[in-house]
Queue: 3 jobs
Job 1
Amino acid sequence: MAFMRYRALPQGELTVEEFRAWLAQFDADRDGRISREELQHALRSINVWFAWWKARDGVRAADANRDGGVQGEDEVARLFAFAQRHLHVKITQLGYY
């Protein structure tokens, strides 16, 4: 079994681009959408407790069309808001988000 090394979430305040780049490395099937399992893997990489639960809640909060994943500008903006509120991630330069 091969192990992949992921970049850590940068410390301090993040830009939208940094958050997207960090999250994109967990898009295992490269379909441009983040599933609950992929978000769970991302949260585990930064040692979030109850990663499965928070991933489920994050996708529920962000998934506007209820297709089971996060894709598109609107849903990504919702995931940013979830990360700020529940994961205590500080994202700057949100623009219209």
Job 2
Amino acid sequence: MAFSGKYEFESDDNYDAFVQKIGLPSDKAEMGRNCKIVTEVVQNGNDFTWTQHFPGGRTTTNTFTVGKEADMETMGGKKFKATVKMEDGKLVADFPNYRHTSEICGGKLVEISTSSGVVYKRTSKKIA
């Protein structure tokens, strides 16, 4: 599955319930609500650089190799270690309090995060 590209936020489902479930501070939750996050993915085999550009200039970058432990950062800014796996064409990572999957579906980046039964889905359209 080729992930490389630049993707712009298009829609999401269940944002408020999810950020409440994971305990995201209200200021960070408000910042993320309906914001036009641009996700830039550079893939070279199993090596990835995954960058999210937020309005206002804030950027979060995670660099990882599938199957190897890497230093990561959550959307709330918490740093942790995780091993990203590839399962059925999806990238899968276990964050501190949720499981995150990413896949390319119909040319769009579809990300699903699940925490204690609460599912958040974000879809981004490819712009480059």
Job 3
Amino acid sequence: MALDIPSVKLEQFELDNSQHVEQVFAMLRYWRNRQREKATAASLHSLLSQEDYALPPESIDFLLRD
């Protein structure tokens, strides 16, 4: 939801990729391709930090490291 991927597309990722990690990578590739130059680690961190989706900081802070 945080990446604004349609549910139909999410279902397709599940059908096309048997392993969870493959599904996650497919979602990230889709997001990156849609966002193009806006698809940065910082923007991903920002999306995943939003109140509605807030992941624990220790899970995503690596995105901000150089």
